[in-house]
């Protein structure tokens, strides 16, 4: 059995660890609230641009306009996945879940698949799994702006329009609640027409719908990538807060167990000393 000094050292070590995990949990909680605010603030823009595209594509369908290149569906020969992950770990099973989701998706395809990876954890996973990496982006940070996704969307759109890839999907962790983050993969390109109310007579667009789509669809793709990054950041901080809170609770339980063990060892030591004293006295009296 360990002696009292060793147990005290272990208690001190676990207490120091608990202080760190508690601080990390508090920091993650603060970052989670800010990321939630950014996510909520960005939704109206995403919803509005989606609605406008729905109206414009409806008008274009009624006219003689050609289909925009980003909306053309062609025979699929190669697929690309934009894989969004955190740069850091210590967020429970979040990274493993989103990486396994990507692996299952790629494993279910009969066609070549490459990846544009956002985040160190996804990049490292793709390298270990021998997934072809078209581009990798890291250090996006906790407060990215829409401009930070410009280069990412440019690479994706350029390769799609040139025919290097025929489908683009985006993989990320969707923020559901503080304790629930859902690995999600959805199609990004070709852009599919959005269902809107049939009455679009109240909208007049200038210039013609095709010219508007030339400007709007690349921005739409960029917004979707940006929104997925915000979802991933919110999920990361939520998962880290929960993981660090759980680690703090476990450390507290461990400390309680070690204190109990230390008391037992101390009690056993005192009992042993008393027995020695009693035995010595009995020997002297005898």
Topology:
Blueprint: H1 4-62, E1 79-84, H2 94-107, E2 113-118, H3 120-128, E3 132-137, H4 150-161, E4 167-175, E5 181-189, H5 209-285
Parallel strand pairs: 1-2, 1-4, 2-3
Antiparallel strand pairs: 4-5
Helix pairs in contact: 1-5, 4-5
Fill in the keyword field for this structure:
single chain, 286 residues, alpha/beta, Pyruvate Kinase, Chain: A, domain 1, five-stranded mixed sheet, 5 helices, 60% helix, elongated
Structure description:
One of its GO terms (molecular function) is proton-transporting ATP synthase activity, rotational mechanism. Belongs to the ATPase gamma chain family. It is found in: Membrane; Thylakoid. Pfam families: ATP-synt (PF00231). Produces ATP from ADP in the presence of a proton gradient across the membrane. The gamma chain is believed to be important in regulating ATPase activity and the flow of protons through the CF(0) complex. The chain is of the alpha/beta class and 286 residues long. It has one domain: 3-Layer(aba) Sandwich (Pyruvate Kinase, Chain: A, domain 1), CATH 3.40.1380.10. The chain contains five helices and five strands; from the N terminus they run H-E-H-E-H-E-H-E-E-H. It has helices at residues 4-62, 94-107, 120-128, 150-161, 209-285, and strands at 79-84, 113-118, 132-137, 167-175, 181-189. The protein has a five-stranded mixed β-sheet with strand order 3-2-1-4-5, with helices on both faces. A hairpin with a 5-residue loop joins strand 4 and strand 5. Helix 4 packs across helix 5.
